[in-house]
């Protein structure tokens, strides 16, 4: 199931927490919080983007195995060993694509606790509409299409992202987020309903980033991070992280797009330089060849 670079991975740390947190539910803030609690690494979409060369293809195949077959083929079901190859370095996971497999991961790792990362469905929809949806389904303008073709031709990592994004659109989130609001919200609600129905109450926690550290720490049997209050001097619960709001997300995507374009430009420049070098060498070789021929014929005539 996995790429060659994944085949040698094994589980290095126990899987302790499976967070059913879909995109734009506070996943980056929760990831940072789990890292503060010592749960390294917490697998997130940022990990996929960092390791597109090894992780994009396995996630795409996992989605195809789960969603494409009707009925699902038992031979394609991922085992604990399969998940270890992809998540063996992680003590926790959340965000898409991992959150699309919460129940499969909970079955593979029965010792792990499950956290449902909640958000108001209407706010979730609007947040995705102005962020993630622009990446997965950009407006079909000529400029966007030309840029995508340019990056696909010259940047291997962009080709891998295109493969993953296509699988997410077709299998993971099979609806038009911008035009099918009711369908998107129904999908969102149904994903949480299925987890609640399958995972017993003693194994799961209903959580929101607004709840702070304490309920999460109590559920995970971990100490609550404390900080000193500047006014009273007393130790109080540390504030829960607040990261990756819509403006931060947009800034990061703008930076990433710029990076991809610079990589494509560099690749194109390299190709042009190689072509020019080959042309110069070929042209010089041709002239040397012609010169030798002329010398040969001149020598033959005057002999």
How would you describe the overall organization of this protein?
There is one protein chain. This protein folds into 2 domains: 4-244, P-loop containing nucleotide triphosphate hydrolases (Rossmann fold), CATH 3.40.50; 253-303. It has a 5-stranded parallel β-sheet with strand order 2-3-1-4-5, with helices on both faces. Strands 6-7 form a two-stranded antiparallel ribbon. The longest helix has 57 residues, at 246-302. The protein has helices at 27-36, 45-50, 52-68, 80-87, 102-108, 121-129, 132-136, 142-154, 156-172, 181-198, 213-220, 246-302, and strands at residues 17-20, 42-43, 92-93, 113-117, 204-207, 226-228, 235-237. It has 303 residues and is of the alpha/beta class.
- Which sequence of SSEs, written as H and E, runs from N to C? EHEHHHEHEHHHHHEHEEH
Structural class: alpha/beta
- Alpha plus pi helix count: 12
Span between N and C termini? 73 Å
Please, how many domains?
2
The CATH homologous superfamily of the largest domain is named P-loop containing nucleotide triphosphate hydrolases
What portion of residues is helical? 55-70%
InterPro entries: P-loop_NTPase (IPR027417), Sulfotransfer_4 (IPR040632)
Pfam families: Sulfotransfer_4
Organism: Claviceps pusilla
Protein name: NAD dependent epimerase/dehydratase
